């Protein structure tokens, strides 16, 4: 294919300091109550935005479905029934059960129905307007997370309504035996029902049902994409989509034979099973904690084998749910319709996967004595795509990302930039690009692609941050879903942004809300132009301190290596200068070239950072180290 040559234009958007504009002064007793016809009344609350202290209305975790518990576990959700007393939507409720919330759920399991979690939070400038709606589906990998990941503090500086639904996760939302009892795709159907609720009732919260943009992060992006493809989703529920680092064609989220995983998970319990009916009854009768424990035990046992060996985290292809009758790529090929769309990935999206491989699979010890270059490549492929039985993918990767010298004599530190690029390309960049390619086929003037290149003070995942990640052989760079830092003040450690980071947050809010409001990320800006895609590979926007247009998104497949060649390496040299836990040391001659003074300075820096890390560990509740990686 002959590549077109594009001029690179430097685009600078001036981030103006908005005046201190306060919203309407609300009466908590009256203005925060909404009456939904044929359902009931809801009590919300007044909250303030981050930058101008604008007062907006928020309805926290209001129910949109009946509890999916008891005989309704694994089943499609049921619409919420009318209620008599006023629904309290002023305080956050529990999130849907997940492996990362097991400790807290253990204490609540005896007093609360922990599976009763199908809620959504709606934040609006006021309930009398008709504002465009951003329906944001939280991410992670379909087995953890909650709508608390998307607080409204930044986005509600603009005139939009933010809706953040919760959906069943892990085995509760995605386990399947392909039977009517456990059909699969329940988590997706939760989101489908939440969208129908928004269609019918968002006008009572000041939203315009004809202007709903569905957005999501990784797993949430995969659900958003599937909403555009599933034949059961009628047109008119939403009008636009945004994909953050994911799409429905990611292999990690697809399974056509889920029953084997369901059976293996059930075998971790005391169930006696002979027939499929026995299997269904077993999974239905387990307590929530028993099911989560079995799910986690199975995942930890199988995770080293890679994609295709763990269950309860994928969309089921086929089966009685009707959601995905065929592979989503086939549905994409057959589609004759698409929505205005925007999507992209951070520059170094692969550092997240590679960090977890080092941390979990290698247990922090680089296996250069056991692994050659082909072993490292194979490990990456297993963890992001699955077993490469035909070796076609391996052949492509070795040809496009590696040279002969590295293939014959590569060590982990030499391969790091390429392994990051391979993981990020296969797991995130290529699936997003393919989704937008197909979208552009039917909507050529309204498909926008981006690469997020801004390296701020923090990373989206705390363990990837510089000070807490000193034990890693590489830096995080601009890691997975880092763009979300500048749309939502989450997690807690990123709620106070530095002035440059706040400037980026203001820019990101402008870009995203412009798309929600006008269908174009630059909206009414006169100083720049974000061109829609016109080819299979671009053009696209590189979002950094300035905005620049790239012509060929294929160049982003090697972004980490390109930066390495330009002297901006993610390899953490100090890691290789420490003989720690059996880790590899750089060649002795190279180490001796560093002066004694330089070594003392470096040692002092390392000691200081390790001391800070120990203090921080004592103050911050760390996530469960038995985390799952699928």
Quick structural overview:
This protein has 18 helices and 17 strands. The protein has 630 residues and is α/β, with parallel strands linked by helices. Helix 10 (373-384) crosses helix 11 (392-401) and helix 10 runs parallel beside helix 13 (412-442).
Helix content: 25-40%
Q: Would you tell me which CATH topology of the largest domain applies?
A: Rossmann fold
Quick one: biggest sheet?
12 strands, mixed
Q: Structural class from helices and strands?
A: alpha/beta
CATH superfamily of the largest domain: Alpha/Beta hydrolase fold, catalytic domain
The neighbouring-strand order within the major sheet is: 1-17-16-15-14-11-10-8-9-7-5-4
What number of domains? 3
Task: Give the overall shape, derived from the CA principal axes.
Answer: globular
> Rounded to an integer, what's the Rg over CA atoms?
24 Å
Strand content range: 5-15%
What's the CATH C level of the largest domain? Alpha Beta
The CA-CA distance between the termini, in Å, is: 35 Å
Model regions low in confidence, pLDDT < 50 over at least 5 residues: 1-23, 579-630
**Count of helical regions:** 18
Oligomer: single chain
Number of strands: 17
CATH architecture of the largest domain: 3-Layer(aba) Sandwich
Q: What number is the mean pLDDT?
A: 85
């Amino acid at each position: 294919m002959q590549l077109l040559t594009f001029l690179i234009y430097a685009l600078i958007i001036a981030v103006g300091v908005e005046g201190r504009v306060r919203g309407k002064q609300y009466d908590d007793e009256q203005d925060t109550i909404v009456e939904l016809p044929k359902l009931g009344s809801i009590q919300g609350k007044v909250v303030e935005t981050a930058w101008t202290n604008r007062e907006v209305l928020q309805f926290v975790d209001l129910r949109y479905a009946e509890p999916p518990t008891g005989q309704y576990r694994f089943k499609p959700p049921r619409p919420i029934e009318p209620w008599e007393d006023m629904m309290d939507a002023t305080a956050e409720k529990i999130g849907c059960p997940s492996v990362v919330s097991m400790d807290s759920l253990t204490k609540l399991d005896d007093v609360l129905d922990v599976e009763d979690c199908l809620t959504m939070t709606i934040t609006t400038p006021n309930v009398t307007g008709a504002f465009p709606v951003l329906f944001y589906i939280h991410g992670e990998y379909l087995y953890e997370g909650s709508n608390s990941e998307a607080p409204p503090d930044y986005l509600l500086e603009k005139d939009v309504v933010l809706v953040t639904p919760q959906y069943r996760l892990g085995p509760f939302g995605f386990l399947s035996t392909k039977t009517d009892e456990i059909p699969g795709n329940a988590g997706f159907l939760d989101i489908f029902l939440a969208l129908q609720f928004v269609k019918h009732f968002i006008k009572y919260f000041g939203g315009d049902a004809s202007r709903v943009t569905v957005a999501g992060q990784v797993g949430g992006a995969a659900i958003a994409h599937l909403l555009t493809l599933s034949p059961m989703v009628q047109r008119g529920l939403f009008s636009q989509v945004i994909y953050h680092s994911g799409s429905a064609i990611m292999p990690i989220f697809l399974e056509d034979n889920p029953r084997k995983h369901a059976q293996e998970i059930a075998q971790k319990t005391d169930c006696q099973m002979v027939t499929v009916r026995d299997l269904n009854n077993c999974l239905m009768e387990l307590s929530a904690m028993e099911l989560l424990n079995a799910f986690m035990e199975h995942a930890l046992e199988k995770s080293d084998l890679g994609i295709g060996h763990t269950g309860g985290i994928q969309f089921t292809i086929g089966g009685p749910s009707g959601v995905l009758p065929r592979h989503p790529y086939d549905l994409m090929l057959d589609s004759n319709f698409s929505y205005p769309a925007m999507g992209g990935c951070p520059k170094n999206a692969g550092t997240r996967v590679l960090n977890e491989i080092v941390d979990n699979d290698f247990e922090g010890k680089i296996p250069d004595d056991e692994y050659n270059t082909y072993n490292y490549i194979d490990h990456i492929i297993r963890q992001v795509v699955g077993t490469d039985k035909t070796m076609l993918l391996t052949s492509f990767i070795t040809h496009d990302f590696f040279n002969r010298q590295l293939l014959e004599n590569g060590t982990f530190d030499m391969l790091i930039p390429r392994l990051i690029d391979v993981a990020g390309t296969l797991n995130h960049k290529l699936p997003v690009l393919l989704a937008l390619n197909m979208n552009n086929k039917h909507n050529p003037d309204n498909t926008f692609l981006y690469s997020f290149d801004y390296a701020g003070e923090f990373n989206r995942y705390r363990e990837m941050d510089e000070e807490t990640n000193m034990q890693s052989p590489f830096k995080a760079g601009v890691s997975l879903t880092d763009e979300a830092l500048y749309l939502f003040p989450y997690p807690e450690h990123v709620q106070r942004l530095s002035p440059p980071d706040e400037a980026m947050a203001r820019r990101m809010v402008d870009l995203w809300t412009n798309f929600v409001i006008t269908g174009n990320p630059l909206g009414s800006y006169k100083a720049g132009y974000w061109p829609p895609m016109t080819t299979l590979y671009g053009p696209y926007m590189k979002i950094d301190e300035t905005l620049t247009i790239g012509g060929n998104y294929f160049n982003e497949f090697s972004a980490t290596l390109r930066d390495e060649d330009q002297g901006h390496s993610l390899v953490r040299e100090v890691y290789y200068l420490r003989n720690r836990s059996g880790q590899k040391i750089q060649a002795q001659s190279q180490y001796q070239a560093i002066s004694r003074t330089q070594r003392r300075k470096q040692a002092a820096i390392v000691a200081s950072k390790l001391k800070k890390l120990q203090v921080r560990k004592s103050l911050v509740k760390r996530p469960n180290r038995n985390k799952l990686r699928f």
